[in-house]
Design a protein that fits this description.
175 residues, alpha+beta, Pantoate--beta-alanine Ligase, Chain: A,domain 2, 4 strands, elongated, Pilin-like, transmembrane helix, transmembrane, membrane
């Protein structure tokens, strides 16, 4: 296998791995990774560009810096592809999470009919539909008369969340 084919296979593998991480990762983890990537990547890129410019002015070549800039360019391309893809994935996940109360309600109403109150946790239900990716096990609470669902907004800030109140039957945005 030629070096070009090996490199192409490696880049394809990395792109698929990157796409899988975007698809299945927790939104909070993606935010932290994006912040760390920006906090580390931007200064490193600026330093590398400055050192490469300085070396070129002195008539020297710096193969290691060229390699660093190449890797940063690949990361920038993946990031530019990831942002719209990530936005689409999160929009779909938000829509699935917002549709979940209608799927969950029959299970909760059956429990309420049998026990007189809503369950305190979802684990108290004999069965329930699979949790959407944004609503974790801690995304449900109940005082017995009403229940609340919530999830952090993956597109918004760190403290932004969507909250569903059974008393109103609607979602509202909270920050």
């Amino acid at each position: 296998m030629s070096d070009v084919m090996k490199r192409l296979c490696a880049y394809t593998f990395l792109a698929l791995l990157f796409a899988a991480i975007l698809w299945w990762a927790d939104p909070f983890v993606l935010r932290v990774l994006a912040f760390l990537g920006a906090a580390v990547g931007v200064p490193v890129a600026l330093l590398a560009a400055f050192m490469l410019w300085r070396a070129s002015r002195q008539g020297r070549t710096m193969p290691a810096l060229v390699q660093v800039l190449r890797v940063l360019a690949y990361a920038a391309v993946l990031g530019s592809v990831a942002l719209p893809l990530n936005h689409h994935v999160f929009q779909r996940a938000i829509a699935q999470a917002k549709a979940w109360p209608q799927v969950l309600r029959p299970h909760l109403e059956a429990y309420r009919t049998a026990h007189g109150t809503y369950p305190r946790t979802l684990q108290d239900l004999p069965s329930h539909p699979p949790l959407p990716r944004l609503i974790g096990k801690g995304g449900y609470s109940s005082d017995g008369r009403n229940f609340t669902l919530w999830f952090g907004d993956p597109i918004g800030g760190f403290f932004d969340a969507w909250v569903y109140e059974s008393s109103t039957g609607q979602w509202h945005f909270s920050s």
